[in-house]
Amino acid sequence: MVRGDTCRAGPRRSRRGPTRGRRRPVSSADKGPRKVEVRLKWDPSPLGEPPRHLDIIAATYAADDPHGRPVYVVHYDSRSPDGTINMNRHSRTGQGYGFVEVMVLELDRLAPSFGRVVVGVSIHQDGGHRTFGDIANAAVVVVEKYTELLADDFARVAGSTATTVVEFTRNASGEWDLREVIRGFDSDTAVFAMEMGTVRADHTPPTRQGGTL
Hints:
Layout: E1 2-4, E2 23-25, E3 35-41, E4 54-62, E5 72-74, E6 85-89, E7 101-106, E8 114-123, E9 139-144, E10 147-152, E11 162-170, E12 176-185, H1 189-195, E13 207-209
Antiparallel strand pairs: 1-12, 2-13, 3-7, 3-9, 4-5, 4-8, 6-7, 8-11, 9-10, 11-12
């Protein structure tokens, strides 16, 4: 179930890490994102508590049915049939330095039959019910080479168990546009993977941050 942008306040959490930053419109000369990485981090569970397992999920949609059922879904236990979307790094605990989970999307290699890709983050609930407000120092960034396209710390969806993060859509020229789509869900991971495509971005122009890593 979609919660929307505004959620009930969760437990107090650290404000360190990526937040929304300045953005610049994508110019007509910009060919849009081609190969991007979605990177995720979070703090491990306190001693004695079950592991906290977050997961990046990508769902692909047909050009003729961009808000229907996904053609396929990619996550920690699945890769795309054509090898264009892969989980290069995965964590079940959050342990490690920096971003502990990384998904690579080679958008420029996707077949023309694909018109939309939605990427989100879900919290596995097998260790007990948890929302983003329960996860310390969680953050997600979308980057292309050395450019940060999007960054968020999940504060806007603190009461949710899953959220969409970014949407890529193929435009009339065949290039890909990127839009932020932070929308919270009250779904477990399996249900979220089927629901995430129902989110519709607003009609603001495609955006990306101008910062470099």
